[in-house]
């Protein structure tokens, strides 16, 4: 791995007595941040732990010297240094005067994502989970460079705090050929995410620190448009995400479902159970447990479903060291495989007992047309999520294609309330002898049962 930290550009903006101490420090390449608090000794935090840099205490003059040599502080009390990745955050008193500075070292680490290079090439959306300070921003910066320079994708970075590409109108070289869109205020991040898709035709959107319901909604909207997403959010593990109400929709959302007495008895569960509502916006989750120890969920659908059924098992762990080869541990035990088979069987059997919440809109003279004889389903989804249909159809094992052209379809599936308003669609389908199935609401069970019955 190669590291570019531009540390000297930060040090030269600090008071002279600190410059001397830091320049001769033997562990300055392990520096994480520098703390300057009024009336206290200056402190440096290294990977190994904190250390005081001087016996001299910080004065108003020392703080003023540093703040005048960096960019202006934003509404979020953050500033930076031109053409670097360093972030300086301030603490203010009740008179809004700065009485403390946190100077966080920004580094571009080249080669850090070699451990997950295969996941990037899968073109699936990836969410990175980790505690503050574990290195999430460094990881997505390198992901942006690899996707743009090596995999030749059109990459747009939504840089709200200017941490990914630096505090300058000219982005840092650490992002390669990726483009960067700055965000004027944090509360506008979701708007800029949507604007990036609508105006700049990206293949990949990269966003740091997804945290609000509006940002989650924007992420789901982008995923439905077929754009690959790479994002980060705070959390130790997948369980934290499932139990976090504003963020749970990133993995499909959770809802209570009431089963019939027979179904609950057959499953061996309570009548009210938790189930995933929809297809997740992110298909892969990476948990940054430590800087060189990552947990991978390659199938978020499966991981969430198993967790809700109390069958959850960690699927994959990846470790790497500078002097060793990458190690991938994949503890796929027999009990884990059995739980997958059991879950799949329970899911399929439950469709056979589900009430009919769908109807066939148009009737045909030739009743055989209801059973599709072609080897491949060509489906026109109307007011339905492409990702939801993909998830269902992949489980049935059928060959299928989703199309935007009605004339090419041999099956139309849509929402009843929307289909009622589209007489042209119904008329055209009748002329082309294409069956239309209308759902009362979007449900994994309803869609699967339709496909199963038509395939029998």
Automatic annotation (TrEMBL):
Keyword ATP-binding: yes
Keyword vocabulary terms for this entry: ATP-binding, Chloroplast, Nucleotide-binding, Plastid
Molecular function per GO: ATP binding
Gene3D superfamilies: P-loop containing nucleotide triphosphate hydrolases
CDD domains assigned: AAA (cd00009)
Superkingdom of this protein's organism: Eukaryota
Domain (AAA+ ATPase) ranges: 122-261
Name this protein carries in UniProt: AAA+ ATPase domain-containing protein
Native source species: Navicula arenaria
Taxonomic placement: Eukaryota, Sar, Stramenopiles, Ochrophyta, Bacillariophyta
Chain's gene name: ycf45
């Amino acid at each position: 791995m190669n590291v570019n930290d531009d540390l000297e550009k930060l040090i030269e903006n600090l008071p002279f007595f600190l410059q001397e101490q830091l320049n001769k420090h033997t562990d300055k390449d392990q520096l994480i941040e520098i703390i300057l608090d009024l009336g206290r000794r200056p402190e440096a935090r290294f990977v190994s732990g904190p250390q005081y840099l001087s016996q001299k205490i910080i004065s108003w003059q020392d703080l003023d010297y540093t703040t005048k040599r960096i960019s202006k502080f934003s509404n979020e009390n953050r500033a930076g240094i031109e053409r670097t990745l360093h972030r300086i955050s301030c603490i203010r008193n009740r008179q809004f005067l700065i009485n403390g500075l946190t100077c966080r070292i920004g580094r571009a680490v080249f080669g850090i994502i070699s451990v997950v290079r295969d996941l990037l090439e899968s073109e699936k959306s990836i969410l990175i989970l980790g505690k503050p300070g574990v290195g999430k921003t460094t990881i997505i910066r390198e992901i942006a460079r690899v996707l743009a320079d090596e995999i030749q994708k059109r990459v747009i970075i939504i840089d709200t705090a200017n941490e990914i590409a630096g505090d300058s109108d000219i982005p840092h070289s650490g992002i390669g050929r990726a483009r960067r869109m700055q965000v004027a205020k944090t509360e506008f991040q979701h708007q800029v995410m949507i604007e990036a898709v609508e105006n700049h035709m990206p293949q990949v959107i990269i966003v740091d620190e997804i945290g609000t319901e509006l940002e989650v909604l924007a992420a789901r909207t982008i995923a439905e448009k077929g754009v690959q997403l790479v994002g980060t959010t705070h959390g130790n593990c997948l369980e934290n995400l499932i139990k976090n109400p504003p963020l749970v929709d990133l993995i499909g959302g959770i809802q209570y479902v009431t089963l019939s007495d027979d179904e609950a008895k057959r499953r061996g569960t309570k009548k009210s159970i938790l189930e995933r509502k929809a297809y997740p916006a992110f298909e892969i989750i990476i948990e940054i447990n430590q800087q060189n120890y990552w947990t991978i969920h390659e199938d978020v659908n499966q991981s969430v479903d198993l967790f809700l059924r109390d069958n959850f098992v960690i699927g994959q762990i990846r470790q790497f060291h500078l002097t060793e080869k990458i190690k991938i541990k994949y503890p796929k035990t027999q009990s884990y495989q059995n739980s997958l088979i059991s879950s799949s069987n329970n899911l399929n059997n439950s469709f056979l007992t589900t009430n009919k919440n769908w109807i066939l809109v148009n009737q045909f003279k030739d009743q055989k047309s209801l059973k599709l004889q072609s080897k491949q389903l060509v489906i026109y989804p109307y007011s339905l999520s492409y990702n939801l249909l993909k998830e269902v159809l992949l489980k049935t094992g059928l060959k299928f294609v989703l199309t935007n052209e009605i004339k090419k379809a041999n099956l139309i599936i849509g929402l009843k309330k929307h289909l009622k308003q589209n007489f042209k669609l119904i008329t055209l389908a009748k002329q082309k002898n294409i069956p239309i199935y209308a759902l009362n609401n979007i449900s994994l069970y309803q869609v699967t049962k339709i496909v199963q019955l038509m395939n029998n």
